[in-house]
Design a protein that fits this description.
By secondary structure, the chain is α+β, with helices and mostly antiparallel strands. It is built from six helices and nine strands. The chain has a single domain, classed as START domain (Alpha-D-Glucose-1,6-Bisphosphate, Chain A, domain 4, 2-Layer Sandwich). Helices cover 40% and strands 33% of the residues. Strands 1, 2, 3, 4, 5, 6, 7, 8 and 9 form a nine-stranded mixed beta sheet that branches. Strand 2 and strand 3 form a beta hairpin.
Length: 241
Amino acid sequence: MELVNDFTVNTSIDEAWATLTNVELIAPCLPGAQLQEVDGDTYRGVVKVKVGPILAQFKGEATWVERDDVNHRAVLKGKGRDTGGKGNAEALITAQAEAAGPNSTKVTVTTDLTITGKVAQFGRGALADVSTKLLGQFVDNLESQVLAPQAAARAAAPVVEEQASMAPAETAATEASTAPSGDGGAAAPKAASTGPRKIDAPEAQPIDLLETAGASMLKRLAPIGLIVVVLLLLLRRRRKG
């Protein structure tokens, strides 16, 4: 199924794009998600979903398929499987950003989603409602946890630069002490790759689909409730007979 959502953030398009394509930075803003390790351009982690008493944990990975920093377009492919063997999920996510003003950016997210198992029983309508609400939670977290602190840091930057310019002697001394010696010594080699890098992140709280979707879930479950009522009436009639 295809889900299309859009949102707007209060920052310039260049700053928004640099933030949104930093998976490690924005991962804590995603409801139910926990980034666990990074291996080059591949990101691995878990997403926890709760449907009433049923708890599903999807363990998987996401990889960049395309990333155009000039035209602000990116495609990310994700796939995961329920650790309890109850289903799988795959998604091809395309994000397109455009300036909505000097300090505003609109982002359109198109998700080609395939889900099997318990979560899939709720259908496209409920999942579309869930994706919209979860995206809203993500944007709220992004604004408060990432963009607002970044704006505060930029506002404080001129003060730091002014203080630094008042001490040129100390700056020159620091530069001299870190400059390579005149004996032709080579620069320090880069650290060798040691494989996937573990991410120390807090455990994610599961997304409660019944709580998040609300009316959409109730509409989906209403026919089942009607069947139960009819069966109960038939049983009563049989007992009276």
